[in-house]
Amino acid sequence: MTRRNPPQTVIIPVMKHEPHELWDAAPPQFNREILAHPLLRMLMWLVPLMCLLILAIVIIFTVWHDGALARFQAAGLTVGKSTDKTSFVKAMNNKDKSFEFLVQLPDKKTYKYSLREAGIQLDAVQTYATGIKKQKEASLLSKLKFWQTTQIPISLKIDDHALHAFIQDKMTITTTEAVNATIDTSTGTLVVTEAMDGVGYAVKDASQQLQMAAALLKPVTLTLAKQPLKPSVTTNDLLPITKDIEKITNTPVTLTISGRSYSPSPEEIIKWIEPITSEADKAVLEINSGRIQEYIEKISSPYTRDVRAEIQMRDEDGTITTLVAGKNGTGVNNQAEAAKIIASNLRTFQPTEQELTIGVKPFTVTTANDYDKWIHVDVTDKWMYAYENDRLVRSVPISAGAPATPTVIGQFKIYRKLATRDMRGQNADGTNYFQPNVAWVSYFYKGYAIHGNYWRPDSWFGRINSSHGCVSAQNDVIKWFYDWAPIGTPVITHY
Length: 495
Prior knowledge:
Blueprint: H1 32-35, H2 38-66, E1 71-74, E2 77-79, H3 85-98, E3 100-104, E4 110-114, E5 120-122, H4 124-137, H5 140-144, E6 149-151, E7 156-158, H6 160-170, E8 172-176, E9 182-184, E10 191-193, E11 198-202, H7 206-216, E12 221-223, E13 225-229, H8 239-249, E14 253-257, E15 260-262, H9 266-269, E16 273-277, E17 283-287, H10 289-300, E18 310-314, E19 320-324, E20 329-332, H11 335-347, E21 352-356, E22 358-361, E23 365-367, E24 374-378, E25 383-388, E26 391-397, E27 410-413, E28 416-426, E29 432-445, E30 448-452, E31 471-473, H12 475-484, E32 490-494
Parallel strand pairs: 1-6, 3-12, 14-21, 18-23, 24-32, 30-31
Antiparallel strand pairs: 1-2, 3-4, 5-7, 8-11, 9-10, 11-13, 14-15, 16-17, 18-19, 20-22, 24-25, 25-26, 27-32, 28-29, 29-30
Helix pairs in contact: 10-11
């Protein structure tokens, strides 16, 4: 058995620790009397306050200088110094294209119209400039309220003409036109037509509403409201006119021709009165001198004779050929002057006594070759010629009026053209005739015309005059004349 040795005790000597001058020394005692000094206590308060003040000044200067905290919006887009102008303008232009007005018409349907249709355009550049200006001009308080956003109106470019036209076209509907009161004297009696109100639909203050909606880009539905349409000339407006007409018709007018007197009746005088509506939508009276001259021509017809102009033509060798012999006429010499005097006196309700003098009216001489284009019809030879000045461009055989229904003789002008026409009238014996589908008709005097003829054989033309006064030839021949001679082309007929 192995014997264990007993444990041995080790004695460790404890060394005496000397105090360290920094760590183990007793802490110094705080002198509270220092804090009690007034100057130190004041500094303890002033230093933080000055730091806060400096910080506030920095913040205020920053805000006041660039307005970064002041937010302005237009059309939902923020405007500020930090806003990119190009992006803002692009976004605004997109809104310009997409925004639509809504207009409700009387049929209860709603119609959409763009800004451009109304002549309105969003001014993105000016809107941006306005936002920046307001940002700079904003008060300090508003700039510090960074949580608030101020809305600014959108600047607009207005085409007043286009806007007015848009409102008239899209927002004004007339269902019944207003009828002005009128006066008619053409039948020889005074006929007054009463004025009547009309009915229309329109948007009240449409221009203002449209511009306001565009400036805020707020959808708006404009409803057309019924409204009466008033006539510009009412029945009451015509009362003074009707009284003046009665005075005029009862004003004496006496005309003397070769010792014989003529006095027009009130029914005749009233035909000379012409009520018209002025530019100011007021009814006024005018005395028509032309109608007075027509009356003078009627009463002087027993004392007058028509003038027949002499028409000459230069032949190729320079000789002059008279196509139509001239003939002096007679007529009233002072017709126009007399009509003017009568009209002037009637306007002031003054009686008129006027003598009409009869004198000779000499015929004039016309050289047909001076016309650019003209047609020469020789009734005796039964031949028709087309001239350009003095150059003959075509000649064709024709059939003119029969002895019982002769062709009118003289100088005339084509005044109406029809490609086809049904013709009817009366024969010399009193019976009626009807000729359908007459082609290439050129009227030159009343019912007298140059036209095609499909019911006579070709051998007929140039040999027999058998018409009711018209000048006719084969259809294809007359078509050439129809195409060649415009309205206004002189037509000279003679025996």
